[in-house]
Write a structure and sequence with these properties.
homodimer, 554 residues, alpha/beta, TIM Barrel, 3 domains, eight-stranded parallel β-barrel, three-stranded antiparallel β-sheet, 16 strands, elongated, amino-acid biosynthesis (chains A, B), LeuA/HCS_post-cat (chains A, B), Citramalate synthase (chains A, B)
């Protein structure tokens, strides 16, 4: 039974400990299934964290099942060690007789993290016991788990508040745990109310006073969880508990990716295995996907905006020297620098963006002017090209005089949504188009209006665009833009739709805006096909060799 | 010309300085109109910040217009002083001859914040001048602005990186500015790469070395902007620059609300006028609305989840002693504690939630069981009751055996979206319902399918529910939930719709989930009407007096 993490240069000397599956799952809006939990654990292991806290077996049925399926071979960990979380025995019961403690042993996790109260007010008012019995509960439970061959960490709940209120009681709990064989005393800012200078002060004092190996667990209620965690490490903690993207109850926990980014890039601590640091961004987005939460675009290190420059001033300076304007090279965390084209952007942002697309706009000042003007006008109506590079590229190509590559002309479409007396809901779409010189009419059903329209358009294009079979609509986002100065009802709003499409060669995003969600979606779908068609034509023109090359992801 | 902030107990001794309108507007996705900017400034002034940086007159036409309209009387500030931001004169030009410097004077802002380079690498590589000329640019520009009667603050760009690389050059820029009459030297972590212990160390060193009044301006690239700002204040800075909700370029800036929360609640610094602290949450949400960005639900202090407790363990303990589980009393920042009812919630969360609705579930264990089961089942299908209290209340009332208050029975509906040959898009909805014993058919058009359906249903209910005229659909949110384990296309996803409705008495939120966005919206609309109808009936039953009382906001 391996109890130490494998594979990082710091080995057991530093613990990167993830509790996404337990504390992270407390976030409003997250609900992991057992397969989700297994998938999350695999991503965390692939990234190279040392410990993965899988849940609270015995308290939550899903968590019990997770540990059972992990033990049965569904989860094979290369770097990480699996940890079960649970509480100490209840007051007045022997540890080996407490079913919750037995469930920890039954989980077969090689490491157990026990939570114990360390604030006297909580011991007396919430637990309704006394300091001595609380210590005994900790010591007995740790000793029992050690006798079962488990490595034990202690999460000292409300430690910082408790230490400030009554330091002897708080430290006494750590003494009880370590004395019975726990080997990390994790100081928890459970209510999340601390600031970094005080965190560093307390960690240093407790390290000095006890000599114990200390860990840190921070909640984000002051907006300082990342800073508090890093400050604790600088003050001597060698075990840090985080959650992916900072998921957690209330304001959340310390974000694993920001903490790791800071430890590696700022404090030069190689806490991940060789090569894994560049997987930070990808892992963050994959775990957002599994949590079914839109990634935070402005997240430090891993957000899609984390290295995005909008201001005209910066954009021109970046042309000169990118190193001066990023705190780290975005590629070390698997992220990339972007220049945003918005109404605020000057001509040099548009030129830089054109160059990203392989278009030389520098020699065409009139085209740059026309693109800047169109972007400003459209954005004033609710369009946004920041996230829709393919639509922006089409706009630039059109400004350069390239003919549109849309593989059809629309005559009309109609969508009907019918809820019958039986309660069944049907969506049906009919499109009438001209493609390859012929008039084509196609009708299809779908599970909703957009799905039906997409299906009907694909059906109408089957013979003229057989390559469409490879193009998949991989993501679809709807945003309602409230009329800013009007007094309109909620359903009057302008709708912005972003469509992400994928084929064998890559993926691309397009945008459509209209008062009607169906028409907004239609505009984005048409751009998506025009982009695919144009890219195909250019690949064909540039010869067979490059025909199989990827379309850049945009 | 007032140059000092009015109204806080700390007066000019501490500066809470907001740059939402300049640095915040750099955030990807934000585009303020001039009326937006005026509205933002009014909210910030009402909250009681000391300084409002309005923009960069002369560089951005919108900002020039903002200052002109403010000076013409469209902006009357009670607490705050308006600040214009700009750069020093260009190399080799006299300050009074530089049109950008003149634009700062012309803005009529009583305070000017000048940005200057303080990192030798930026001076030499980006500005392409030398250290001496850079100092002269700073000194000349400050002196000229002082001669025009302006108070001047200096933003020392890239100060922390510059100080680490070449402290004498960095401090030399501060010397030049203060020597010429600037009265705050603001140390900027422009690339956002710092951590709090180093920030505190540098601020203390520079304060010791210069004796100058220091300010702090942090970007959030390490996820530490709030912590860095607060640590700088603890180390001696008496001027802190923030943006509402941390809006800003890349990962953003230090969040005004978290910084203020920490200064007031953690460091006991009364940086806001009497009574204003309780406006923190409302102001944050209003400014998110003006930025047209969904509020961050997990934001420290002001997020709707900031005091939301989900775990069964915590929810039961909160019944005993709420003080033990919140780092501050949520009401001091105008926020509230919430208990979330989710599949993870135990019976006590459901009981507590029922009590919030005025329903006594404690005496009905079978009803609690049924509610817990229904919530779990529905959430597994994509429903979410966390944000839809009105739907949850309907579900609880139904479990208690109350008859449904829906004021009609649906026979069928049909929605048609037609884009004709002329490119015009029409949405038309027909509903067939039974209301007050009669069959009613109504057809209406709308700017989109949901709007048309809402209009048709209202038309069909005109005679049976005249009170509906008061009920307005005030917000409408669509979320696509990707099929988690399927291989479906983007438009196959299940759609969750949240509808917020308002009448004279309050507002309430309902939820609908379906594969078809129109049906999902229909379900949420029907719940909204059922909730309004039930609340009306109960008010009528409880007599005329309470009939005019508010429905609680849910």
């Amino acid at each position: 039974m391996r109890t130490e993490p494998a594979g990082t240069p710091l080995g057991d000397g530093f613990h990167l400990y993830d509790t996404t599956l337990r504390d992270g799952a407390q976030r409003e809006g997250i609900s992991y299934s057992v397969p989700d939990k297994l998938a999350v654990a695999r991503h965390l292991d692939a990234l190279g964290v040392g410990f993965i806290e899988g849940g609270w077996p015995g308290a939550l049925p899903k968590d019990t099942e997770f540990f059972a399926r992990a033990a049965a071979g569904e989860l094979v960990l290369k770097h990480a060690v699996l940890v079960a979380f649970g509480s100490t025995r209840r007051a007045g019961v022997r540890a080996e007789d407490d079913p919750q403690v037995r469930a920890l042993v039954d989980s077969q996790a090689p490491v157990v993290t026990l939570v114990a109260k360390s604030d006297r007010r909580h011991i007396e008012r919430a637990l309704r016991t006394d300091v001595a019995e609380n210590r005994a509960m900790v010591a007995d439970t740790v000793a029992f788990l050690r006798s079962q061959g488990r490595r034990v960490f202690l999460d000292a709940e409300h430690f910082f508040d408790g230490y400030t209120f009554d330091p002897d009681t708080a430290v006494g709990v750590l003494d009880a745990a370590v004395g019975a064989g726990a080997d990390v005393a994790v100081l928890c800012d459970t209510n999340g109310g601390m600031l970094p200078l005080r965190i560093a002060e307390v960690v240093a004092e407790v390290a000095e006073r006890t000599g114990f190996r200390l860990g840190i667990h921070c909640q984000d209620d002051t907006g300082c969880a990342v800073a508090n965690s890093v400050s604790a490490v600088q003050a001597g903690a060698t075990h840090v508990q985080c959650t992916a993207n900072g998921y957690g109850e209330r304001a959340g926990n310390a974000d694993l990716f920001a903490v790791t980014g800071n430890l590696v890039a700022k404090l030069s601590m190689p806490v991940l295995p060789e090569g894994a640091f560049a997987e930070l961004t990808r892992t963050s987005h994959a775990l957002a996907e599994l949590a079914n939460i839109a990634p935070d675009t402005h997240q430090a290190y891993v957000g899609t905006s984390a290295f995005a420059h909008k201001a005209g001033l910066h954009a021109s300076a970046i042309k000169v020297d990118p190193e001066l304007y990023n705190h780290v090279d975005p590629s070390v965390v698997g992220n990339g620098q972007r220049v945003l084209v918005t109404e605020m952007a000057g001509r040099s942002s548009v030129e830089l963006k054109g160059a990203e697309f392989g278009l030389d706009l520098a020699g065409h000042p009139d085209v740059v002017t026309s693109v800047v003007t169109t972007v400003k006008d459209r954005e004033a109506q609710g369009w946004s090209f920041e996230a829709a590079d393919a639509s922006l590229e089409l706009l630039m190509r059109s400004a350069l005089g390239e003919p549109a590559a849309t593989p059809f002309t629309l005559e009309s479409y109609r969508v009907i949504i019918d809820r019958g007396v039986d309660g069944e809901v049907i969506a049906e779409a009919t499109v009438k188009i001209w493609a390859a010189g012929e008039r084509v009419i196609a009708t299809r059903e779908g599970n909703g209006p957009i799905n039906a329209l997409d299906a009907a358009l694909r059906a109408a294009l089957t013979s003229s665009c057989p390559w469409l079979e490879d193009v998949e609509l991989s993501d679809y986002k709807v945003r309602l833009l409230s009329p800013k100065h009007g007094a309109g009802h909620g359903t009057d709003a302008v709708t912005r739709v972003l469509v992400e499409s994928t084929d064998r060669a890559g993926s691309w995003t397009t945008v459509g805006v209209h008062g009607n969600v169906v028409e907004a979606s239609w505009l984005a779908l048409v751009d998506a096909l025009a982009y695919a068609s144009g890219a195909r034509q250019r690949r064909a023109q540039s010869g067979a060799c490059s025909g199989s090359g990827p379309i850049a992801t945009r």
